[in-house]
Write a structure and sequence with these properties.
globular, mainly alpha, 9 helices
């Protein structure tokens, strides 16, 4: 993979990462309510899930999206229900201004956010089809080596994390403009609505 191809691939994945969808919606909601730093595990979960799909694509496992459609359907529904639950929690959450969290709570929240991010990306098996259609532009699929797979996986991780954290930082900037309890309550309603919209996207947007 040449330097030019690597750079083009990197930019394409970066743009793909910030394309509006349930993952970006979830990041916006979390960034607006908890800040950009707390978006790291969510973005990481989404990225790891995408890289797994990328590796599947590289290994020619496109049939997994068809042979195990029932499993992905269950993940999609579970992910949608979980987003609905998070939206409800945001609608009903009490307003607290910058109260520090205990380390135990932060650790638990990190794991839950990672799982949430992983489920959001894993709930759309069509991502693997995107990579299958996308990769031949940059790689000779028939002669892929382990080094090629490692390299494109690395580029994907870096590009996605940069793009997703950029979205998170923008969401956090919006939060910093809102300081009163009334505006924070509106922010919670907005974030909850975004979560519910993301859940609806997962539940009703069945791509063919």
């Amino acid at each position: 993979m040449s330097l030019e191809s690597s750079l083009t691939f990197f930019l394409a994945i970066l743009i793909f990462g910030i394309t509006p969808g349930p993952g970006v919606f979830a990041l916006l909601a979390r960034g607006m309510t908890l800040g950009a730093k707390q978006c790291i595990p969510l973005a990481l979960g989404m990225t790891i899930s995408d890289v797994i799909y990328l590796i599947f694509a590289c290994l020619g496992l496109a049939t997994i999206a068809h042979n195990y459609a029932f499993l992905f359907e269950a993940i999609r529904i579970f992910g949608a229900v979980y987003l609905f639950y998070l939206g409800y929690k945001m609608f009903t959450a009490p307003i607290e201004i910058e109260e520090p969290q205990k380390k135990e709570k932060l650790k638990k929240d990190f794991i839950l956010a990672f799982v949430q991010g992983f489920l959001i990306s894993a709930s759309n098996p069509k991502v693997i089809l995107f990579y299958i259609a996308f990769l031949p532009t940059f790689l000779d699929i028939k002669s892929l080596s382990a080094n090629d797979i490692i390299w494109v996986s690395f580029l994907t991780i870096v590009a996605l994390m940069i793009g997703l954290m950029f979205v998170s930082i923008l969401a956090n900037k919006a939060k910093q403009l809102l300081k009163s309890k009334k505006s924070l309550k509106r922010l919670n309603y907005s974030a909850g609505s975004i979560m519910i919209a993301a859940g609806s996207f997962l539940l009703f947007n069945k791509q063919s």
